[in-house]
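If your schedule permits, I should be very grateful for your opinion on a structural question. I have a record of one protein: its chain in single-letter code and its fold written as discrete structure tokens. Kindly check, if you would, that the fold set down in the tokens agrees with what the sequence suggests. I remain grateful for any guidance, and I place the record below:

***
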Amino acid sequence: MSGPARVTHASTRAAVLDLIRAAGMISRVGLVNATGLTGGTISTVVRGLIDEGLVAETGHAESTGGKRRVMLQLNHFARYAVGVHLDDARITYVLTNLGGAVVARISRAGAAADEPAAVVARVAREVDALIDSVGVERGRILGLGLVAARPSEHREFGRALERATGLPVVLDNDATAAAIGEHWSGGVGATSTFAALFMGTGVGAGVVLGGATYRGPSGHTGEIGHTCLDIDGPWCRCGARGCLEVLAGPAAVVEQARADRALSRAAGLVGGRTRAATPVAADFAAISRAARQGNTRAVALLERSARYFAAAARTLANVLDLEVLVLTGPSFAIAGSVYLPVLRAELDSAFIARDAHPISVRLSPSAASAPAIGAAAIVLQSELVPRRQGLRLPDDLAAEEPPVFGQLVR
């Protein structure tokens, strides 16, 4: 088969497989109607997918007077993907099936202070343990998605991890992956324009516009943590003053809590635990626990942070005309109950397009593991879209591909 013919066939196969995934169950006639392809083409593609074990026939549709149509369904256990989220505080691992459902999940302490070679060896062991925990054959693993706050700094790590695990590795930004995870898992419903506001150790946002994840030419779309909220504010590491992250991110909250002796004592931030000895995420979690237990100083501090987040989120929503804003990431998983009502109130009262349409602000039910789920989803899409053949990427990915070290398509 010639090169162009292979691309056409692969593109058709990808489109059909993704339609079956999205529909849950669909007939061949339904695929013809949805794609505009001929019945013969659909029959050929479906037969190939069944032979590969990716799709199965499952029962019949209700009769409409003629022959009952055979329904098709994705074989969710035909392929799997690993997702890994590297954060200073935690490393989160998930194994998902072809439908994106998490079948295994583990979380371990971060390794920011360890040597890269030791981290690679450790992650490889933990990936093996994850896969072995459910007894999945290695041949069914499509690859490994690795996401972090600064993926460009992890290229060599990704290559080393690929060698250590024997799996193709794809890198991406953790906030972008969180948005993909929400989209892939159905956490945002049918909406096509939304943002995932991410808070882990740092702050970011993943943006989906018209169903397509938007990364920008350098992959730095969604750096909401560097929205200026005070032109005379403190200097940020980015070189500007008064950024959201330096005013109200987890590190800022921890610093402000440490300056409050009563709160610091109540949250357990003193008494031998120095700033250098405790990761920011651990101290932020301690402050959040104090707030949940009713400590008014902790509540006030987090609500102040939430007001800054709400101002930045309102700007993001106004600029992009968002339909949905999802709060996600490990820090929102811990403190989201404080932040959510503050952001909802701000956007209910000050979102510029509120008379035209509402904006739904919600807390992700899988906030702690959304980046890892998104990392696995990026790998899963390699089965749905042949990334190496220059095709237009689907709704969940942007035209600017993240670095891929191995051949993902099998």
Summary: Residues 1-7, 271-276, 386-400 have pLDDT under 50 and may be disordered. The radius of gyration is 23 Å. The chain is about 45% helix and 20% strand.
